[in-house]
Amino acid sequence: MPEAGTRAGILGMGSYVPERVLTNRELEKMVNTTDQWIVERSGIRERRMAAPEQATSDLALEAARKALEDAKTGPEEIDLIITATNTPDSLFPAVACIVQDRLGARRAGAFDLLAGCTGFIYALSVAAQFITSGMYRRVLVIGAETLTRIVDWEDRNTCVLFGDGAGAAVVGPVPEGYGLIHTRLGSDGAGGPLLHMPAGGSRMPASRETVEDRLHFVRMNGREVFKFAVRACGDGSLEALEEAGLSVEDVDFLIPHQANIRIIEAAAKRLNMPMDRVLVNVDRFGNTSTASIPMALEEAVSLNKIKDGDNIVMTGFGAGLTWAVSIMRWYDYKKRELGIGN
Ligand code: UT7
Fold first, then answer.
1. Residue-wise pLDDT tens digits, 53-94
2. With a 6 A CB cut-off, is 156 part of the ligand 1 pocket?
3. Is 257 a catalytic residue?
4. Which of 71, 94, 166, 195 could share a disulfide with 319, CB 3.0–4.6 Å?
5. Residue 262 CA, closest ligand 1 atom number
6. Among 150, 226, 227, 322, residue to substitute to test ligand 1 (most atoms within 8 Å of Cβ)
7. DSSP string, 47-80
8. Which domains does the chain have, with CATH numbers?
């Protein structure tokens, strides 16, 4: 058991996207849209689509296996699995339980966490509590989605935006001076109707009418969510940095939730961060919700972009409405011997 008060950090990462690429040109044939509109208004060029036989747990499992391999951790070493998702295989059981079984993580507890597209940062902060309290040594945190299953392919306002994918991180104790420095979690439940799926829950159970009225799909007021997102990512990050006693100059990389390049650029501008210090994958994968931040982080880590000791700021927003900021001093688990308490 690690000592209470130990910092939590990332010890391995993995990501997975389905093979099938859906381009803007293909969408032009499905709804009244153009490649030019999608690129100019969102920055998205293409996104991935799960194969018919793939559900969210299949994507989550692929990312999880890679993360365990990267962390040189066996499934039996995992104490807890948290999956952040908005698109579970079914309403229950949890995706995390399916992954736990298929990984063979016999000792692990498992649950899903629902916090819209902000879910990965929420899950990371929950994982960190188990590490810093000394209760657990290895927590597997996953963000996984099959959003193409819940978008209305007749609604051009939403269907061009979302994609499928998964990212995973093994969280554990890291040496002094590294790991999660500060987390800020936020919620504005009054904004719930701005981004939701109306039917299929206890308020409006599935019926012939709900299906005919297309109520089992994502409904979004894009303009309002856009304004909230810029505020949440920009001002939220500035507030979190101040609380952590850091300034924008101390930040090496900003990793925003990938919903729209214009939101990302506006947040970067608010922070006065040049775009070469902002990680972007929305052009290639669209909005993958809870998977977008771990996928972007995993890519930067595998390209050795992020160096030991770099300060990274992850910032997300989404259904709830929720938002969150997480500040982490990067521990280069690939190059260093594991320190005390690992
Ligand atoms: O992960 C969190 C969830 N989602 C988000 O973060 C999304 C946040 N919002 C956005 O990214 C943007 O608001 C959108 C990309 C959704 C929309 O961009 P916008 O610049 O806010 O456009 P708009 O909603 O103000 O719509 C402008 C026009 C409308 O036409 P009219 O009413 O001006 O005639 C829309 O009907 O663009 C039209 N439009 C489209 N046109 C072509 C909306 N979607 C499309 C489309 N193709 N796919």
1. 999 999 999 999 999 999 999 999 999 999 999 999 999 999
2. yes
3. yes
4. 195
5. 11
6. 226
7. EEE--TT--HHHHHHHHHHHHHHHTT--GGG--E
8. 8-177 (3.40.47.10), 180-329 (3.40.47.10)
